[in-house]
Amino acid sequence: MSQKWMDYGSHLYPSVVINDFTFRGTLNPYNIFEAVCASFEHKPHACERWLKKEGIQQQPVESEEGLDSDTLILIVGVLVALNLVLIITYRYFLQKEMKEDRKIQVSSAVSQYVALSNFQ
Questions:
Q1: How far apart are CA 21 and CA 105, in angstroms?
Q2: What's the confidence (pLDDT) of residue 14?
Q3: Where are the transmembrane segments (predicted)?
Q4: Is 60 helix (H, G, I), strand (E, B) or coil?
Q5: Which of 64, 111, 115, 120 is the 20 to 30 Å CA partner of 45?
């Protein structure tokens, strides 16, 4: 019992544990009753009647839409692969351009050297 008390954290803050969920907030009978009613998947008639009397609107349960972990890993993997392809392509064209620039510089240096050697 003391281990659950420590796990739920009710020794730190005033709280109530309802269906393994810790309720922290204003601890009055109305709020606790509302939390108990909210914890049911199918609300009992008493809860529906009380919520209607209090004017509390029930949010319809939305289906969980989003990405599962496999899809997220796939998207991250595709983005990493795309970035690697772009980096490799960039380096290839950069090296090609640098090689052409080096050829031009060497050709220019050789032609200057030849011009100087013919001058003497």
A1: 74
A2: 72
A3: 72-93
A4: coil
A5: 64
The alpha carbon of residue 19 and the mean position of all alpha carbons in its chain are separated, in whole angstroms, by 29
Instruction: List alpha helices for the chain, DSSP H.
Output: 2-8, 29-39, 45-54, 69-119
Domain ranges of the chain: 2-54, 67-120
Judged against a pLDDT cut of 60, whether residue 9 lies above it is answered with no
- Dmax (CA) of the chain: 112
Check pLDDT > 60 for residue 36.
Answer: yes
Q: Is the pLDDT of residue 16 over 60?
A: yes
* Integer Cα distance of 7 and 11 in angstroms: 9
Q: Whole-model pTM?
A: 0.42
